[in-house]
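User: These chains co-purify. Model them together.
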Amino acid sequence: DADVTQTPRNRITKTGKRIMLECSQTKGHDRMYWYRQDPGLGLRLIYYSFDVKDINKGEISDGYSVSRQAQAKFSLSLESAIPNQTALYFCATSDLLVGELFFGEGSRLTVL
Amino acid sequence: GQQVMQIPQYQHVQEGEDFTTYCNSSTTLSNIQWYKQRPGGHPVFLIQLVKSGEVKKQKRLTFQFGEAKKNSSLHITATQTTDVGTYFCAGYEGGADGLTFGKGTHLIIQP
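Assistant: Joint model of the two components:
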């Protein structure tokens, strides 16, 4: 089983719908991250959390929200999805501020 | 804010040729990491460089960190089809925001 699991792996939705992407990890890491990947733009940080009571905005947080339900769970929500949020989303964990990132398999979201 | 530029965006090589990707930061970095993403996959950590002028090797891969800690490179000798993918650098400047990723270099290998 993967150490960092994302659900769903693929999702097609319509403009205006609420979407939640979930991430769970078995690595025991305190730090969790949500990244967005678009062709030609690399990986951009949406939100990150250093522990259950800590939530921080990243480079592109507008239109997104997160919840850290437990050390092992970090979910990303799109309250009202729009087409330019169509992208590949990755959850990642690390055990240090600048330690190796362990990525999930990714969640491909299409907003029509 | 910190910017990490990576070139080239795409590189086509014949199998057996060498490949290099370059990463440049607008600010001095505390350290830099490299990741590889296979087509359809997720980024996987390759290495972290911390010291000025550091050079590390992993089989056919050579990683360098510049003396000024503002640039880095990844060189692959004698590419193989298994090297296909996108290579990302990610720099850490300091503070709580963590890593800033470059846009990646797509390596395409023609047999």
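DSSP finds no helices and eleven strands in chain B.
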